[in-house]
């Protein structure tokens, strides 16, 4: 017993010490931005295969000659938080712009990052339905997902920032079909009733789906194409109404000049073509036209709902957001049942 | 020694506690009493208790077989026990999912249920009780048992009156470690639990969700509750052990 009290006392003393010191030491500057020829790329996980080809291509150009790369890939939100906390980065690419906004708020990315011709977006995609080979459940539109007996897989929108695209696609599709806000929320409620698994991330969800669970996986077109390229037995359907996914790229404030050169290269025909081959929709129109991406009749963007800043609070606040309330109502009913 | 402990354990823990009060006591209370947090904490606590009891029984049995029985391949089995420690927990989750998921070869499908949570926790906590009971059992003098037998005690009586009292402290400390580990487990549960809020979402995943939603204070608050519960459990087990050893003498 004595030993435990001893530990407690030390513990309390340390806690007091930490409180007293104000705990204000987390603002280490990110990225020395080495003048030589090294660039650090911090990105979310899926574009890695594209960068595996784009980086060597950049190194063939006069601007990229001799530039060495350090790369880090991971979940978008985690990567963004890591950079905020001090992970050195010269170029960042994330799944959604609120992950860059976080760095703007922290003073690590200039607020003009989205002022270029493409509004800071380097690749596009759309929310799509991944289905079993041959589409046995005959899934074509959003209404098919709320039918009884259809098992839907989508990542948990609270653990996966990217999964929020899926929810906003579902919601927006209702609005664009002329439904009211209440009707669209009722639709989300019906959708979540059919969601059998809410994985932590989009990649985990794909794993769950290819592992045999579920009839439909709500995912991104590029993920579906990647899965097919890897030989998975899946088809995908692009619903008539869907959201345009926009992946932003930015350089950090103290990055060397080569970082901007690299970002410029990402918009070149060559790099955009590589993105296209990996399933992303190129943002450069002339390159996109070389590919055969279907254009859904109704394509909307997150701006239609006020942008991520607004949507985050309205839908994904863990206590008062629309989605939190839906999950809560379903959770309470399944618990008592 | 104190310096080392401080850097490795105490300061980080203190930082978590401090962070959890970042939005005041009221914020702390709101975070840990939100319905999603309460549901996940209940599931985590319940599953960890089940895991602790199963481990107490099965871990002791495995240790017994490994020490007292001889069979071909015993050495290999003995070294297999520690593998759950070596395996990255996400791989453990993936493996369990492949075996006991919808496409599992055995025809058992428990994936995305609370059973799956318990199964994954049992896997990652297996070594604790086995490894704490084994050496004690090894040192245990068989003369005591022989004496009991010569006085007419049956097998069960010998186990209950002679062997078990000697093993209890080791079982308890193994159980305590297994329990604490189960409370905080994340990696192996992420894939197999399905993370359905209010049904299979454990506290560690709930914490992760709070971090992803830019609410580090709420995440820290739930962590502190987890830490508190584990600490209470460890304390309780310690008290039981002391009480036991006092009554023995």
Considering the chains and any ligands shown, give keywords for the structure.
heterodimer; A: 337 residues; alpha/beta; D-Maltodextrin-Binding Protein, domain 2; eleven-stranded mixed beta sheet; 14 helices; 11 strands; globular; B: 249 residues; mainly alpha; MetI-like fold; 12 helices
Question: SSE layout and pairings?
Answer:
The complex is a heterodimer of chains A (337) and B (249).
Chain A (H helix, E strand, L loop, with lengths): L1 H19 L17 E7 L3 H13 L7 E7 L1 H9 L6 E3 L4 H8 L15 E12 L9 H4 L6 E2 L9 H14 L4 H14 E3 L4 H9 L5 E5 H9 L4 E4 L3 E11 L5 H10 L2 H9 L3 E2 L2 H4 L9 E3 L6 H10 L5 H15 L1
Parallel strand pairs in A: 1-2, 1-3, 5-6, 5-7, 9-11
Antiparallel strand pairs in A: 3-9, 4-7, 4-8, 4-9, 4-10
Chain B lengths: L1 H19 L3 H10 L1 H34 L5 H7 L2 H4 L2 H12 L13 H26 L2 H9 L4 H30 L2 H6 L10 H10 L3 H33 L1
Helix pairs in contact in B: 1-12, 2-12, 3-7, 3-9, 3-11, 6-7, 7-9, 8-9, 9-12, 11-12
If you had to describe this structure to a student in words, what would you say it looks like?
Chain A has 337 residues and is of the alpha/beta class. Chain A has 2 domains: 38-123 and 245-288, D-Maltodextrin-Binding Protein, domain 2 (3-Layer(aba) Sandwich), CATH 3.40.190.10; 125-244 and 298-336, D-Maltodextrin-Binding Protein, domain 2, CATH 3.40.190. Helices cover 44% and strands 18% of the residues of chain A. Chain A has helices at residues 2-20, 48-60, 76-84, 98-105, 142-145, 163-176, 181-194, 202-210, 221-229, 257-266, 269-277, 285-288, 307-316, 322-336; strands spanning 38-44, 68-74, 91-93, 121-132, 152-153, 195-197, 216-220, 234-237, 241-251, 281-282, 298-300. In chain A, strands 1, 2, 3, 4, 5, 6, 7, 8, 9, 10 and 11 form an 11-stranded mixed β-sheet that branches. The longest helix of chain A is centred in the first third of the chain and has 19 residues, at 2-20. Chain B is an all-alpha fold. Chain B has one domain: Orthogonal Bundle (MetI-like fold), CATH 1.10.3720. Chain B is globular and about 65 Å long. In chain B, 80% of the residues lie in helices and 0% in strands. Chain A binds chain B through residues 1, 4, 10-11, 14-15, 17-19, 23, 77, 81, 102, 156, 158-161, 195-200, 204, 207-208, 211-213, 316-319, 324, 327-328, 330-332, 334-335, and chain B through 2, 6, 10-11, 13-15, 17-19, 30, 34-36, 39, 94, 97-98, 101-103, 111-112, 190-191, 194-199, 201, 205, 208-215, 218, 235, 238, 242.
């Amino acid at each position: 017993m004595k030993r435990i009290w001893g530990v407690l006392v030390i513990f309390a003393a340390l806690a007091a010490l930490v409180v007293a010191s104000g705990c204000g030491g987390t603002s280490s500057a990110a990225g020395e931005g080495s003048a030589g020829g090294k660039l650090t790329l911090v990105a979310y996980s899926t574009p890695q295969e594209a960068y595996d080809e784009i980086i060597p291509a950049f190194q063939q150009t006069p601007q990229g000659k001799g530039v060495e790369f350090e790369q880090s890939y991971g979940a978008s939100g985690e990567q963004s938080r890591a950079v905020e906390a001090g992970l050195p980065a010269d170029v960042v690419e994330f799944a959604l712009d609120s992950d860059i906004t976080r760095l703007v708020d922290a003073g690590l990315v200039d607020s003009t990052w989205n002022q270029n011709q493409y509004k800071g977006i380097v690749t596009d995609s759309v929310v799509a339905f991944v289905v079993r080979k041959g589409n046995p459940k005959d899934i074509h539109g959003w209404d098919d997902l709320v039918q009884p007996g259809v098992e839907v897989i989508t990542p948990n929108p609270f653990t996966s920032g990217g999964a929020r695209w899926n929810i906003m696609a579902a919601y927006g599709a209702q609005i664009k079909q002329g439904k009211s806000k209440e009707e669209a929320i009722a639709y989300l409620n019906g959708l979540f009733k059919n969601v059998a698994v809410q994985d932590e991330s989009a990649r985990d969800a794909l794993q769950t789906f290819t592992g045999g669970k579920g009839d439909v996986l709500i995912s991104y077109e590029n993920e579906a194409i990647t899965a097919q390229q890897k030989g998975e037995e899946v088809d995908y359907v692009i619903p008539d109404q869907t959201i345009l996914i926009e992946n932003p790229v930015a350089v950090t404030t103290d990055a060397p000049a080569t970082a901007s050169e690299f970002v410029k290269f990402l918009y070149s025909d060559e790099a955009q073509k590589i993105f296209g081959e990996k399933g992303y929709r190129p943002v450069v129109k002339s390159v996109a036209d070389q590919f055969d991406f279907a254009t859904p009749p109704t394509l909307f963007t997150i701006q239609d709902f006020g942008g991520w800043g607004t949507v985050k609070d309205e839908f994904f606040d863990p206590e008062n957001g629309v989605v939190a309330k839906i999950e809560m109502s379903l959770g309470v009913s399944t618990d008592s049942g | 020694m104190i310096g080392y402990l401080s850097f490795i354990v105490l300061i980080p823990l203190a930082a978590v506690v401090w962070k959890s009060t970042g939005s005041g006591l009221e914020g702390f209370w709101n975070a840990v009493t939100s319905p999603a947090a309460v549901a996940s904490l209940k599931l985590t606590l319940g599953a960890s208790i089940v895991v602790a009891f199963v481990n107490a029984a099965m871990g002791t049995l495995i240790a017994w077989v490994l020490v007292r029985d001889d069979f071909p391949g015993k050495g290999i089995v003995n070294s297999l026990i520690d593998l759950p420690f070596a395996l990255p927990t996400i791989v453990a989750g993936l493996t369990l999912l492949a075996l006991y998921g919808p496409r599992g070869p055995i025809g058992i499908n428990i994936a995305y249920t609370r059973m799956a949570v318990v199964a994954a926790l049992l896997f990652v906590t297996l070594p604790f009780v086995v490894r704490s009971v084994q050496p004690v059992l090894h040192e245990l003098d068989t003369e005591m048992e022989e004496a009991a037998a010569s006085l007419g005690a049956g097998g069960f009586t010998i186990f209950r009156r002679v062997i078990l009292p000697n093993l209890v402290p080791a079982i308890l400390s193994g159980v305590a470690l297994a329990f604490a580990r189960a409370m905080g487990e994340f990696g192996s549960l992420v894939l197999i639990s399905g993370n359905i809020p209010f049904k299979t979402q454990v506290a560690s995943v709930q914490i992760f969700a709070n971090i992803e939603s830019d609410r580090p204070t709420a995440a820290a608050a739930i962590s502190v509750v987890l830490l508190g519960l584990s600490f209470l459990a460890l304390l309780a087990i310690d008290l039981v052990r002391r009480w036991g050893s006092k009554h023995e003498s």
